[in-house]
Amino acid sequence: MSKDFVFSTREKDYSKWYNDIVEKADLAEHSAVRGCMVIKPYGYSIWEKMQAALDKMFKDTGHVNAYFPLFIPKSFFSKEASHVEGFAKECAIVTHYRLKNDEGGKGIVVDPDAALEEELIIRPTSETIIWNTYRGWIQSYRDLPVLVNQWANVVRWEMRTRLFLRTAEFLWQEGHTAHATAEEAVSEAEKMLDVYADFVENWMAVPVLKGVKTPNERFAGAIDTYCIEALMQDGKALQAGTSHFLGQNFAKAFDVKFAAKDGKLDYVWASSWGVSTRLMGALIMAHSDDAGLVLPPKLAPIQVVIVPIYKNEEQLKQISEMVAGIKKSLEAKGITVKYDDRDNIRPGFKFADYEFKGVPLRIAIGGRDMENGTAELARRDTMTKETVKQTDLVEKIEKLLIEIQSNLYTRAINRRKAATHTADTYDDFKKMLDDKGGFIYAHWDGTSETEQKIKEETKATIRCIPLNNKKETAKCIYSGKTSTQRVVFARAY
Amino acid sequence: MSKDFVFSTREKDYSKWYNDIVEKADLAEHSAVRGCMVIKPYGYSIWEKMQAALDKMFKDTGHVNAYFPLFIPKSFFSKEASHVEGFAKECAIVTHYRLKNDEGGKGIVVDPDAALEEELIIRPTSETIIWNTYRGWIQSYRDLPVLVNQWANVVRWEMRTRLFLRTAEFLWQEGHTAHATAEEAVSEAEKMLDVYADFVENWMAVPVLKGVKTPNERFAGAIDTYCIEALMQDGKALQAGTSHFLGQNFAKAFDVKFAAKDGKLDYVWASSWGVSTRLMGALIMAHSDDAGLVLPPKLAPIQVVIVPIYKNEEQLKQISEMVAGIKKSLEAKGITVKYDDRDNIRPGFKFADYEFKGVPLRIAIGGRDMENGTAELARRDTMTKETVKQTDLVEKIEKLLIEIQSNLYTRAINRRKAATHTADTYDDFKKMLDDKGGFIYAHWDGTSETEQKIKEETKATIRCIPLNNKKETAKCIYSGKTSTQRVVFARAY
């Protein structure tokens, strides 16, 4: 293993610690194209597991997949007023459709004769092109609901990028649904928020707050934006997923009407919802430690690694035969096992490598183990080791994988508890933010002005108004005006 | 069902017949963006089945997935001389990264201050960006082979587009592998050709010819291009997949070297291979008939549809209870079943709809069937019906699905046999082409000039030189010069 294992700790440089894990654990790297990443095979295999779990959840809730064009005609963006107003203008714009050989012989140049009549935008999100398509799909209430999801790449020309967390191109899924009533569309948006929360908590082992965004933080074109917010180890929040109730805004912009049962024509009601490769960032930051990546078993590409420790070929052969049986038994239970018997790498290096890559369980088997019928079993989450009888291994591993999954969740929820505070004055609020960050519950007067001022002065934003929030009358920490509930502030990714 | 069921036949207008099936069976439609298609949920679910089967085959042969940027810096294209020379220049080109509100208040315009320093090309294929990345991944023979695949969208600015067969944007997978020796890279290209042939024959039920392309038809930058060629019902060939031995061309262009066991530095050897949503076009054209789409059971999103025929609620309830049991038994065997008990659509319309959508088996159950303990079972491939005992249904269906899969393959291979000819003179050759098309085995002198002339005069191209081709000395049908083997000509999609 030629890899450089000097890497940062959370304490020393949190941001470098994150980058070191992403790059040195072979999850992703920067590409030659500004702001775009290469997702490496190990990182991509985690994303594939996320995709598979989410896709099944979408299908189990009645959704189907489809695919819409990468390109959106520029004019489409102008059709929904608040969408174009609120949405970032940083997009990749296609203006030409042909290259040609440079007449001076210097490679290739853009052919000036091949300018598009109308420029095309690489989709930053697909509401416009999809609602333009739905016009042809929906005539009557019988055509509703339309429950479609798309797995796709999207591009937002971010100026400051970070692997997985903020990249110009990223992978995501976007659901776009059409309904006969506002109630159905709202309940779809709420249902998908629940699906996201279920996935992030039960697969990623990351606890989330469910809430509604303030008007300031809403998706451009939405009536309401629901979100799940997670807390990272440095006390910063990360928005892990959003779902939007879009009202009839896009239906009106793209003239999508349906005949109701009584024959009356009305505009269709909409929701949209999405999660992206940003979840990879949340996964990495939520659990990892100063020894590298820590993965929850449900999303680990390798759940168990087995390393033989041997003095000669004869011993290796013995160990390998024994391991073959265990591996087979584990695989029969759906557990992913890697047996690493490479002979050019020392066991200690293998240990460090799999530790760094977050493999939940490691088994080491040496000569003495073979004599005693034992194996050494090491947990990545607690970094503890124990000696286990070979005959007990399979059962033990099955239990431990469940235990690790649940332990990671508990650890994350305890961290969040420790980093969740209540502030009753603006001074306390600012002190808490600078001290250790975290979620801060505080009273707010409900105005965008106050929200904006607090953001300017402290860089904290209102992450959400929690669902089913407790109502209590008090004073806004900033303006002193009347407030009816606490909202959740944090600095965020 | 409001759908218009007037559609073309193969005889009347083959091209319209194809489009009618694609559009009216809800597979795909044209989008608002020139040359780009929307893949509709029913079509996409077939593509998902293709993806799942192929992805498993790739992984079973040792490959892993990764993801590389959508954008390729323009200068990358100039680095591999024959790649830039041979590759079509029709690409989507990103020149700007920001929009702005029009000062005149007329929507949005491209911000002229946001021109990119170097234009970015939307990937038409990813050899260049991937080999630029591999330079960082490969130092030693221990890093080889690299066996990576990517599922992605690509764009080629085609002027004349047809749904699935030729679209500006399409979905595909592209494998890009790196090896220590030429032999390994060649054997990888051959192995993946076998994987493709296996998939197309055993899943799509479409027989293929395996062969090598002539230099004229090679991928730009390849030393050798292997291909599988299928024959459609109108006698035209369709290239269903290709794999390329790229030599050291891309490694040299992007300076990717490795230290061999003996310490010597050498350029890395490469292969690449891909299939795309074009396979959907092949699938549709290979089996469908004048009653619509015909799908092989292994790729059918719905394998069995059950339609109740009832006079009253009581009868429906009885039928539904019986069907629930059968559905459960079928699903336990991994068979996909849809029970269509919609009460606003007449059975006859349902029959026509599922027939048109290619559902392999249809069961109808009415009042008399309930009395007799029977059901009517209809096959989509042969359009035959039979009465079956309800107690025999599950076993019968399981057998029939296998039989239909194999029958479609046999039918396709018989069609191909009937449309495969041998021409010994250029006159015969031309007559065969105009008469019924098909694959024509003919002697060719091996020169690009002759190949080009024949193409100009007849629109037929050399589809491939079959693998393990029989050697026989004779005269080229065009030039009369010596030829050592027959090659396969056809007009093609």
List the helices and strands and how they pair.
The structure is a homodimer of 493-residue chains.
Chain A: H1 14-24, E1 28-30, E2 37-39, H2 41-60, E3 64-65, E4 71-73, H3 74-77, H4 81-86, E5 93-96, E6 99-101, E7 108-110, E8 115-122, H5 127-137, E9 146-155, E10 169-179, H6 182-202, E11 209-212, E12 224-231, E13 237-247, H7 249-253, E14 257-259, E15 265-267, E16 269-276, H8 278-287, E17 304-308, H9 313-332, E18 337-339, H10 347-356, E19 361-365, H11 367-372, E20 374-379, E21 385-389, H12 393-418, E22 420-422, H13 426-435, E23 439-443, H14 448-458, E24 461-466, E25 471-475, E26 482-490
Helix pairs in contact in A: 2-6
Could you please describe the fold and organization of this structure?
- Two copies of one chain form a homodimer.
- With 493 residues, chain A is α+β, with helices and mostly antiparallel strands.
- Chain A has three domains: 219 residues, BirA Bifunctional Protein, domain 2 (2-Layer Sandwich); 99 residues, Rossmann fold (3-Layer(aba) Sandwich); 71 residues, Translation Initiation Factor IF3.
- Helices cover 35% and strands 28% of the residues of chain A.
- The first copy, chain A, is built from 14 helices and 26 strands.
- In chain A, the strands form six sheets. In chain A, strands 3, 9, 10, 11, 12, 13, 16, 22, 23, 24, 25 and 26 form a twelve-stranded mixed β-sheet that branches. Chain A has a five-stranded mixed β-sheet with strand order 18-17-19-20-21, sandwiched between helices.
- In chain A, strand 6 and strand 7 form a beta hairpin.
- In chain A, helix 2 packs across helix 6.
- The two termini of chain A are 33 Å apart.
- The model of chain A has no long low-confidence stretch (mean pLDDT 95).
- At the A-B interface, strand 2, helix 2, strand 3, strand 4 and helix 3 of A face strand 2, helix 2, strand 3, strand 4 and helix 3 of B.
